[in-house]
Each structure stands twice: as structure tokens, then as C-alpha cells.
Amino acid sequence: MTDKSYDAIVIGGGPGGYVAAIRLGQLGQKTLVVEKETMGGVCLNWGCIPSKALIAAAGLVEKMQHANQMGITVKDVTVDVGKMQTWKNGIVKKLTGGVASLVKSAGGTVVHGTARLTGAHTVQVTSSDGTQENYVARKGIVVATGATPIQIPGFDVDGKVVVTAKEAVSLPKVPKTLVLIGGGIIGMELGMVYQKLGAKVVVVEMLPRILSGVDKDLVQVVERKFKKAGGEIMVKAKAKSCSVASGQAQVVVEQGGKDHKIDADCVLVAVGFRPNTGGLGLEEFGVALDPRGHVVVDEQLQTSVPGVYAIGDVTGMPYLAHRASKQGEVVAEVISGKKAACDYRAMPSAIFTDPEIATVGIGEEEAKEKDLSVKVGKFPFSVSGRAMAVGEPTGFVKTIVDAESDQVLGVSIVGPEASDLISEGALAIEMCAMAEDVALTVHPHPTLSEAMMESFKHALKEAVHIINK
Question: What pLDDT, on the 0 to 100 scale, is given for residue 1?
Fold first, then answer.
């Protein structure tokens, strides 16, 4: 074994880790990245990027199938799943390769292996052949190991019939019947992909509704489209067991005190994630974890042990790639001696169902729970000229404004391009904008972004294209 020294060692090459490494390099810090599998982490390899590629492909299939509404006839639409997977894999390969190149161009070094902290400034890396190397971090160690899908009793994942999101983005064929265990973000996103490609999809959700934590009126828009396309949703339902025989699964679900048996070609277990903190040696020298196993950090991403930092999913909810990236930039600046901290006022999130859902700040239901005095503005895409012109007039923009000061507290969108439109809401909150700041900003016509402006005007009772109630 040999000793090698760096200014910083980053454990994990995902959207938090690789961003931290690049920023550290920009700031003149000699940096080592230790990645157990492939650079890019969950997001680039089997999460955000490949799933969105499949979502786009499935959406195109659906558009072609309904193009006759625009006077366009498309005959014999067929899907070659193998070619679709090759196309998707090409995108992943290009991006993961690009990430590695960016780290190296910033002066960073990448090694592959399993890392374990042996002290506040030392890391031992074991390669796949068992070879071990010891490394020293003079200024800081950054834990960016992400999270892993949770497995539940009675559902043994085999990667073929019973799968997690990791395998679900690489299915070799479209299942005739797909059962989703969990009606959260990942389940609904991937479920709607395979629904559009021809699968019968059944959602089994333990809670009273799918997409828990999102305002009910937004969820209802997605739920209506899902059910209209033939999807089934079982809420307040417990997935008890799953048996597999001859490539077929039978799922037993308890609902209303009765057991129901569902036959399926594929079962996707999507009940959440757990942090990857096991085996890192964190607790052995005092790094504090919360009850769920997340690393506890302060606003500078410092753990309870000086010199050891943590970023991304391993630090807790929300599990968002852009949150991890932001934390990666902050921790790099902290280690480099700059005055930096996680002081963002709002963290936007996007759900790529159909239609999309995006939120930032406080939602209407949360405002009611906190007994806040607010004004609510709402503008439907059904009266948006642009939304009608592109054939997506479903959904709305909803704005939450402080009743006394008119300061922007939150924005929620369900509808076309919600994931892109939400950034204006995030900027408004970050800049402590008032409702009239957005309402008085001229938005180009005809665009979807006009709905944002009209929603704020509606909160002020100044909307032009809908009645002010």
C-alpha cells in the first residue's frame, strides 16, 4: 500500500461529487474523486437522464398516435424497444464520459474503487481486484455517496420480473401488465412511460393518494390523465408479497381488509431511497447520523467531525440532483477558504409525469396548515393560446402570495413544460420579489410563460384573460 496526498478527496462521482471536484479544481485545489461504479452517479446512469430520455420517446409516440387531431395522419406507429434503449444508452455514455473529462480538465484525478474513511483526513480505497491504496486529504473529505432504492419484505428483486428504477429504465421489452409498488415520483414517471408504450399499469400506494406532498389539485390533473389512459390506482393499499413463476409475477395486495391478487409481467418496487452511509466507517470516528442514516451537516456542509463534509442525497431530503450540485459548489468554496454557505431561500423540484408538475416555495396546502394569510392566484392553460396551439391545454399555474406584503411565497405548476417554467418562480422567491414585480414584467406572446404573469395578476385581482374572483 502507498500513501498519496491531496487537498481534497471526494467520495462519489454523482451530480454532487463531480461538481464539487470541478469547482475545487477551479479554485486551485488538488482533488481526488473516488467512484465505486460509473461517473455521473444515479442521475446520469439510471436516474434523471435515462428516465427523461424514455419519457421524451414515449411522449413522442403518444403525440404521433393523436396527431390526427391536428390533421396529420401517422400510420402504423411501432416501437423498437431495443433501438430505443440503444439511443438512450448513447446519451448516458456521452454524458458520463463528458463528466469524467470535465473533472480531469479541472485538474482532478479519478480512481475507481470502494472508499472507507480511516480517519478525519485519510481514506482507504479498495479496487475491484482487492488492491488497496491509502490517500490523505489535507483540507477536507467530501462524502457524496448518494442513496439506494429501498427494498421491501416479500419482494425479492431479481432485476428481470421484480425490478427497481435501476432496471426499469433498461427493460428489454414493454410489459403487458406493470404493477407499481409506490405511487411516488419515480413510480409515476416510469409508469406513465410504459403506459404510453402499451402497458397496463396498476399503482399500489399505501398512503391516501399518489404523489404525496404535492397539492391535491395538481395531483388530480395527472391522476385523471393516467386513469383515462387505462391506469388503475389502489390507495390505502399494502403490498404484502410477490411470487414469481415462469417469468410471471403475482402480487398480493391488502386493501380495505381484503386481499387482492394481481398478475403482472413486471413489478417495479419504487417506495423510496435510503442513504449510502454503510461501510464508510463514518460512525467509527464520530460522524453523526440522523435516525434514518443520513449524515448530519450544518449550512457549510460540515459534519460533526472537522474536515469531513457531506453533500447530496446522503445528507437527507429532498433527493434532488440540482440540490446536490449546489451543495457541491458550496462545499468546494468552503474547503478553499471562501465565505460560502447554503443560504438559498427556495429549492425547486420537478416531476416528469404527464403533464409535468413543478413546485417551489410554499404550496397552498402547506400555507393552510401553517395558518398563513395568503392570496392565491391561478391561471389555467386551457385559455392559453400557446398551450392550445401545441395541443397541451391541460393544467394551470398557481401562485401563493403573502396577503399583507404581496411577497411571493410559492409557485406550483401542473402542465406543459412545468419543469422549465418553474425557474421564474424560484428566481422570484430568491430575489424576495413582490407579486407585482412578476405581474408587471412583460412576457412574450404567445408563450406558456404568460401563464405565470397572468397567475400573479390573478392573485392581485388584475387578471385580464380570466375572471377575477
Answer: 45
Catalytic residue among 260, 322, 443, 445: 445
pTM (predicted TM-score) = 0.94
Q: Which three cell numbers stand for residue 375?
A: 392570496
**Domain spanning 349-459, CATH class:** alpha beta
Contact 145, 280 (CB under 8 A): yes
The region, left, alpha or beta by phi > 0 then psi within -120 to 50, assigned to residue 40 is: left
* Domains 162-271 and 349-459 fall in the same CATH topology: no
Give the end-to-end CA distance of the chain in Å, rounded to a whole number. Answer: 73
Known catalytic residue at 445: yes
Query: Phi and psi for 219 in degrees, rounded to 5?
Result: -60, -40
CA angle 358, 426, 296 (to 5 degrees): 85
Per-residue pLDDT tens digits for 430-458: 999 999 999 999 999 999 999 999 999 99
Query: For 162-271, which CATH superfamily applies?
Result: FAD/NAD(P)-binding domain (3.50.50.60)
Nine-digit cell at 216? 391535491
What's the angle, vertex CA 56, arms to CA 51 and CA 60, rounded to 5? 145
What is the Cα–Cα distance from 384 to 446, expressed in whole angstroms? 8
**What's the average model confidence in pLDDT over 61-67?**
92
The reported pLDDT for the residue numbered 105 is 95
CA–CA dist 294, 462 (Å, integer): 46
CATH class of 3-148+274-335: alpha beta
Structural domain boundaries of the chain?
Answer: 3-148+274-335, 162-271, 349-459
